[in-house]
Specification:
Layout (H helix, E strand, L loop, with lengths): L1 E2 L2 E2 L12 H21 L21 E6 L5 E3 L2 E3 L3 H12 L4 E6 L5 H13 L4 E4 L11
Parallel strand pairs: 3-6, 6-7
Antiparallel strand pairs: 1-2, 3-4, 4-5
Helix pairs in contact: 2-3
Amino acid sequence: MKTDDREAEAGEPLGEINVTPLVDVVLVLLVIFMVAAPLMTHAIRIDLPKAAAPAHGTHASTVTVTVDAHGAVRIDGAPVTPAEVEAELARRVARDPRTSVSLYADRNESFGTVAGVIASIGRARVSHVAIATADGDAGTAR
């Protein structure tokens, strides 16, 4: 068998290694890891330790603000006009500064109405606002 323009004698090992296939394999592995590395950062699972201390920012009261598909606004089930949202929430925040708001807005309502309610919540100095969304599979609010 003829290799590299020289004949290998019987029983004599070859003194040269062709590194081209090795470099090809290393470069392919490098490309695979470069593509796979960003995908693996989202899959980190951490088992957080449990603490016996209560959370610092517990909210004494939670107010539910609902905007239905017709633009009607309700605070804890009581109907209010969009102009009254700020005054009502400011009154509740004055009574308890740790008040939080959970906002439920119908997906068919225009963004302008919902944005107005969010602005009213901000002007009322509510420190914590949670915007409820529906679970993609079940369609239930969380």
